Amino acid sequence: MSGQSKTPPCPICTKPTPPKALNRFAPFCSRRCADLDLGKWLKGGYAIPGPEAESTSKNPLPSPANDHFADPGQPPEEE
Ligand SMILES: [Zn+2]
Fold it and tell me: How far away, in angstroms, is 21 Cα from ligand 1 center?
């Protein structure tokens, strides 16, 4: 079958994508996958702050001296 351009599979869900002419979310199959990919980039680009880590901070200015050591005032991360 020639004359029909093949589209690469969606990089997110690996499903076949619609023809590019009809697919405004190319190279993804749908907006959902495009959003998922965008979310991946956003997560990788932004630093994810710990839950309420700032609210429990006692020192407004972080000291570079204890940067390599855990703050004794804060408990270690637990599940
Ligand atoms: Zn997809």
Answer: 16
d(CA 53, ligand 1 centre) in Å: 35
Contact 73, 58 (CB under 8 A): yes
0.90 cut: is pTM over it? no
How close is the Cα of 14 to the center of ligand 1, in Å?
6
Question: Residues with Cβ within 5 Å of ion ligand 1?
Answer: 10, 12-13, 29, 33
What are 20-69's pLDDT values in tens digits? 899 999 999 999 999 999 998 888 765 656 665 555 556 666 666 655 55
Rounded distance between C-alpha atoms, residue 11 and residue 29, angstroms:
9
> Distance between alpha carbon 1 and the CA centroid of its chain, in Å?
39
Residue among 46, 69, 68, 73 nearest 57 (CA)? 73
